[in-house]
Amino acid sequence: MNPRRLKAVAKKEFLHVLRDPRSLMMGIGIPMLLLFLFGFALTLDVDRVPLVVWDQCESAQSRDFISRFSGSRYFDLRIRSDNYRRIEQAIDRREALIALVVPPDFDRRLSLGEAAVVQAVVDGSDPNTATIALGYAEATALGFSRQVAMKQMQRTTPLPPPDSGGGARQGGGGKIPALELRPRVWFNPEMVSGHFIFPGLIAVVMMIMSGILTSLCMAREWETGTMEQLMATPLTGPELIFGKLVPYFCIGVLDLALSIALGEFVFGVPLRGSLWLLTAMSLLFLFGALSLGILISIIAKSQLLASQLGLVATMLPSFLLSGFIFPIENMPLPIQAVTHLITARWFVFILRGIYLKDVGLGVLWPEALFLAIFGVVVLAVAIKKFKKRIA
Fold first, then answer.
1. Is the distance from CB of 188 to CB of 195 less than 8 angstroms?
2. 2, 93, 104, 153: most buried, per Cβ within 10 A?
3. Rounded Cα–Cα distance for residues 347 and 205 (Å)
4. Is the dihedral of CA 246, 14, 266, 315 positive or negative?
5. Phi and psi (nearest 5°) for 100?
6. What band does 181 get if pLDDT is binned at 50, 70 and 90?
7. 199, 352 in Cβ contact below 8 A?
């Protein structure tokens, strides 16, 4: 390739992008808008679950039990009911997601050491949220149950004799649990869903931006009639393609820098791994995404068709098949096989590994190798498909 001709094509494309506000908006404005929208609006955390309570016992024990829910950050006590009809209305109107019904004999059963059954009514129209809310309720009830059991054990355990050295001994009236689970969460101790979502969001935004922008660059030349003029020059196919890619590669680098800065200073997502490794992997992914876009632009000589193909080939797979939100392990096996061809899947894995786990190239080399092979193969196909002649 001739460096002068390559530089001339790149300069021409730079001028076009800088003089076209729509291209700048698509290249910089839309990615930042998506980062802000999804970064603030998209969350997998289920907090402040709206709760309705019907306390039929109205005792100190039942009020203590309810306070476990109202004082938790996972529940928001909205309504106190006195009948099932009011509970049904609250759930129908989405005023509450879960309802607790405390039976009249709640206090008496606990005093006798018997099991007190509390009914939990959950809105199952959203199964995922309902499952999480029910898990919160079960954990809260278990904590209260342990507190009651400890109090009963203290009442039934005899005091140690004076000559026993003051050590407490277990009496026959109480039982110490045989197993106690003490979990420890690695990599995301607070289990903030934003720390999980944001790295994947960078992959989605870069894929969409790269695919859509470059899918229009060659098709625009065909529609405006300037492709014939380019073909009349000594430009070769690779020179034209690489010259077209240079400006969008620079825009992608700028988007990457802005995304990392937003994650650090706006969303508070910690970058535990190497910034240099993150940059290298991102540039490798960007190369493949731009190559896919230029291939679409060569195949589709219409901007409308190219934009539609770009959306189908970038946005939908990035959102649905990359593991960005939906776990790949839960997908049917044929769909899981298809996801291996989606570069965003591997880049999401790389980003989360670097951001959250501080893993290095010794772990990520298979994904990096796939991104490199994908970029080279797709670019080679694009160069092969481009013919410097008018049909």
1. yes
2. 153
3. 12
4. negative
5. -115, 130
6. low
7. yes
Q: Using CB atoms within 10 A of its CB, is residue 216 exposed (0-12), middle (13-18) or buried (19+)?
A: buried
Residues 127-169: tens digit of each pLDDT: 878 888 888 898 888 888 888 878 777 776 655 555 544 444 4
CA distance 345 to 353: 12
Rg (CA), the chain: 30
Residues in a beta bridge with 69 = none
Q: 247 is written with which tokens?
A: 């400006």
Residue for token digits 């494309």?
13
Q: 203: which residues sit within 8 A by CB, 6+ positions away?
A: 285, 318, 322, 324, 344, 347, 348, 351
At how many degrees (to 10) do helices 193-224 and 303-310 cross?
160
What domains are defined for the chain? Answer: 3-43+196-385 (no CATH), 49-152 (3.40.1710.10)
- In angstroms, the CA 308 to CA 313 distance is 9
